Amino acid sequence: MALQNTQRIQIELDGNPPFEYVVVKQGEKGSRIVEVTLLENKTEFEIPSGTTAKIKYYKPDGKKTLNPCTISGNVIKVEYSEQMLAAAGTGRGEIVLYNGDNVLRSATYYTKIVETVYKENGLISDNEFLDMAESIIKVNQATDKAINAGESAEEAAEEANTAATSANEAAAAAEEAEAGVSAAISEANTKAAEANTAAQRAEAAAAACENIADGMNSMADDTTGITYTIGISGGMIYLESEDE
What we know:
Oligomer: single chain
Number of strands: 12
Strand content: 25-35%
Radius of gyration: 57 Å
């Protein structure tokens, strides 16, 4: 973890003295922090809850930066980026307090940037808008989440449609099976009725045959009125009357 040099300053909101200077070295990176307390009529200014802060910074070469700050109580923390210290000379910083998108108050201070002997990393001074970059990143992240959510919703809808199709197919198969079972039962009942009718007819025919057989074995004498039964015994035909 890089060592950090923290300097504490006080700035009047009305622009009156004292004018605080922060002295830094050109090319410093991630090591310089300024903690600012705002004054109003030489009294510490109470920062309202929900306030946000940014620093508008004009570099000695005229390039601009707009970066976010953090607030803790009534102290505003400014962390210098590499670009803010890319050019030697005197830079002017304006700390701006916001209530939503509205500017609440602002205060100005100065930074003395001591020129380095030579630049080790070949950094070129340029405009820097970290606050805007963070907003773009957040927008991109939100867009990615929305796209992912949309894809997930499409996948869920597709799975739901597939499940509904399967359910409909299963219901149709069940209805078809139920219809087949009903048809089989109906056919079985019809066959059973036909079998019962055939059995009844067979029984009637058998009874008729017995009656016919009984009629053929018995004969009545027209003169005497006696009924005789015809039989065979030992190869001989005999008659037997019912009176005997």
